[in-house]
Amino acid sequence: MTKVYFDNIHLEIIRQIDSAKFDLKICIAWFTDYQIYKNLVKKAKDGIKVEVIIANHKHNKNSKVNFKELLKHNGRVSYIGNLNDDSRDSFMHNKFCIIDDITIVTGSYNWSYKARKNAENILVLNNDKELAKEFIRKFNELKPEYGFAIKDNEVTLLPIENIMSKWDHNPINKSETISSANIVDKF
What we know:
With 187 residues, the chain is an alpha+beta fold. The chain is built from six helices and ten strands. A seven-stranded mixed beta sheet has the order 1-7-6-5-2-3-4, with helices on both faces. A three-stranded antiparallel beta sheet has the order 8-9-10.
């Protein structure tokens, strides 16, 4: 079943997130809505696999949503694109979420506070495995080689395959540790 929403979209997104039983894959250009973020953290704490891809953009970097708590609960976060905000650069402008590999939430709505005031929409597409496979393929295609993790209470840039070992006591090769205060300057 497909359903469209034009009002109270952030509440519907939260409702959809709350329905996840094992997996959330999120690809959103701007993600600054702390209320949505708190629900993702709750799901990660409950053992749900949460992966987020967002644009490497100043609005995301300066947001109250810093993803640290999500990372502490085994969430994966990746920024993609150039931070210089040059109009000649391509920009990851997708807005979709895949829930349990079968439900897709997509539309014009970024997961931001500003989007709550805009004329926006989302579609919720339920029980369409073939369409979900296409979104999963795109998600995996977009997923970058590097992502952020927490190690010794510091934000660390690691190869994605090493993210899950972020609390190991063994040193990880090819990692770059930066203080969380320098994230905006570094990336």
